[in-house]
Amino acid sequence: MLDRYGDRRRACDVRRHLPTLNIGLADGGTQRLTRILGYRRAIELIITGRVIDAREAERIGLVNEVVPSGTCLQRAVELAETIAALPQPALRTDLEAARTGHGRPLDDGLRIEAQCFNRSIFASETFEGLRQFNERDHPDRRADTTPVTPGLARSL
User: Fold this and answer.
1) pTM
2) Which end of the chain is more exposed for a tag (fewer CB within 10 A), N or C?
3) Where are the chain's structural domains?
4) Which of 31, 29, 72 is nearest to 51 (CA)?
């Protein structure tokens, strides 16, 4: 439960399940919050000890998505299936580039991304995904199918 005062909304965050959003200082909250929310917003929550509800946690970027009570596991499985359908070599190198480049100067991050891309581009799964996309054989590019990429808005 996010709000210890009885708010019935729940949040599902794939990074980490937080049983309450009144983050204590001894559990790493001062370090985690500043990295997730940025210094100013984190300090506000740290020094006030204010408990926030699920909607505010989503609004400020502490959780990725708020789902109705009892549906968190179902939504997590849906998200896992979406991720599993993507070309895994490309996904792994995208994550590597994001993690390795995070906090570094942009030029370093772009270099890291290019190195990762160059390693993944020749994987068979990546090649097939690119072929499908370029040949309009991918569900995201076909007029007769629903896009598989979440949030994609396409004009045909």
Assistant:
1) 0.60
2) C
3) 10-81, 86-156
4) 29
pLDDT band at 127 (very low <50, low <70, confident <90, very high): confident
Assess contact for 34 and 60: CB atoms under 8 A: no
Q: Which of 22-26, 56-60, 134-138, 150-154 has the lowest mean pLDDT?
A: 22-26
Cα separation, 35 vs 11, whole angstroms: 19
Q: 148: which 2 tokens?
A: 């598989």
How many C-beta atoms surround the C-beta of residue 132 within 10 A? 16
Q: Do 3 and 53 form a contact (C-beta atoms < 8 A)?
A: yes
- State pLDDT tens for residues 83-115: 888 878 888 999 999 999 999 999 999 999 999
